[in-house]
Amino acid sequence: MKEDNQGVIIKGVGGIYTVRSNDGTINLCQIRGNFRHSKKTPLAGDKVIIGPSGDPDVPFVLEKILPRKNSLVRPPLANIDNLILVFSCSDPVPDLKLLDKMLIICNKLDIKPIVVFSKSDLNPEYNSKLVKVYRDAGIECYSSTKEDEVPSSIIEGKIEGKITALAGPSGVGKSTFCNKLLGSDEMLVGDISDRLKRGKHTTRHVELFEYQGGFITDTPGFTSLNLFEVGVEYTDVAGGYPEMKRESVGCKFADCRHIAEIECNVTSQIGDAIDEGRYARYREFYEYLYSRRPNSAGGYK
After folding, report:
1. Most buried residue, 151, 217, 223, 293, by most Cβ within 10 Å?
2. Residue 205, pLDDT above cutoff 90
3. DSSP 207
4. For the chain, where are the E strands, in sequence order?
C-alpha cells in the first residue's frame, strides 16, 4: 500500500475530513457513497485509506477505516495512546472523584494516564500530598506552578509518535499547555471567570496537531462522560486503582471485592498502603455500578 494512500484523520467538520497522509501531505476527503451506509463514523485519530474522488474541491474519499485501538463518541476521537489529566490543586479545587473516574476509563480503554496537578504554588502543602497519593498508587503524576501551567519537560520522551490528548476541568491550563507545546495559539484560551471559576475558552471540535512525530489534542466533553458510555462494569472499577490490585494479592479470596470480605488485605491497608479517600471513591463507584448491573431479563437490578 502506498504511503500517500494511508493516513490519519486530524479533523472532521461538516462531512469534510482532513487527513494527514503518511508521506506528510494534507488532504481533504469526503465519504464514498457506499461508505455512508456503514455504521462506522469516521473520527479524528482514525487511521484510514484514501483514494481519489475526481472532485477538484474535495480531491479524495475515505475508502476504509483501519482497526481502532479504542474510540470515544464524546469527544469523537479514536486511537488515543496517552491522556494527560490536568487538575489544579487550587482555584478551582480538584475534583478527585472526577479524576478517579477518568483513571477508570483510561484503564478500560487501554489509555496510559499521566496526572498533572497545576497551580501548585497556590497550595504547596496540599499539592505535595496529592502528588504523593497518586504516585504511591502507582500512577505517573507531576505538579506545576501557576506561571508554568504544565511544563513540557514532564512528558518529554513519552509522546513521540503517539496520539496524546489532554482532559480535565475548565480553567486548569489544558489549552495553555497545548499552545506552549505547539508554539502557537492553536487553542483558544480566555481568562478564568471570577464568578464561576471556570475557563472561558471553548474548544468546538476535536483537532489533532502534529507534535514529535505524533499528535496532541484537547478533548472537549471528556470530563462529562459517564462510566456506562464507555462500557465500564463494576468488575472494571479496580482497574483505576492499581494500588488495590497490588495489595489484593494478600486477600483470602481471588474474587474479593475489597468491601466486606473476611481477610481482605486491601481493607486492612486503608490509611497505610491504601489512601482513605481513594478507597472511599473506589467503593462508591463499585457499589453504584454493582447496583446497576444487568439482570437476566436484559434490564438492570
Report:
1. 217
2. no
3. B
4. 6-13, 16-21, 26-31, 47-52, 60-65, 71-72, 77-78, 82-88, 112-118, 141-143, 163-167, 209-211, 214-218
Residue 197's identity, in one-letter code, is K
Residues 6 or more apart whose CB falls under 8 angstroms from that of 212 comprise: 159, 160, 161
Supply 122's cell numbers.
497556590
In this prediction, residue 147 carries a pLDDT of: 66
Comparing CA positions, the residue from 96, 28, 41, 31 lying closest to residue 74 is 41
pLDDT tens-digit readout, 26-75: 999 998 776 666 778 999 999 999 999 999 999 999 999 999 999 988 88
Q: What is the pLDDT of residue 203?
A: 44
Buried b (16+ CB within 10 A) or exposed e, 179-201: bebeeeebbebeebeeeeeebeb
d(CA 259, CA 180): 44
Quickly state the pLDDT bin for 14 (edges 50, 70, 90): confident
DSSP per-residue string spanning 214-280: EEEEE-TTGGG--GGGGT--GGGGGGG-HHHHHHGGG-SSTT--SSS-TT-HHHHTBTTTB-HHHHH
Q: Hunting for cell 472526577 — which residue is that?
A: 98
- Decide: pTM greater than 0.70: yes
